[in-house]
Amino acid sequence: MKTLQRLHIQLRLSEESLRAKVEGEFEVEVWQASTSVQGQEEHNVRGSELEEELRAQRAACEEEQFQIKEAHSRMRAVEQEVKSATLEARAYKRRYDTTRQKTNHVQEQDAFA
Known about the structure:
The chain has 113 residues and is mainly alpha-helical. It is built from one helix and no strands. The chain has a domain at 41-108.
């Protein structure tokens, strides 16, 4: 009977030891899984932050490109105004030179007459 009791006690101790081992392994697995999930969540948060930063930079680049296009457009308009003013000034100078030549010619004829 004592042998049976000892075997029963050893069986219980073995069960408790096995249960503790299994529970310990389970706790380790749960801890590893939660750590993995936490790491993934941190990774996801950082990824979201980077995506938001990228969106902000993209918006800033698009705004800068728009401003550059606007500046180029204004520059082309000014270039056209300068060309137009240059042509107008040349036409005015030709008219002035023609008028001056005619005036000089008339004055020369008056001087000889």
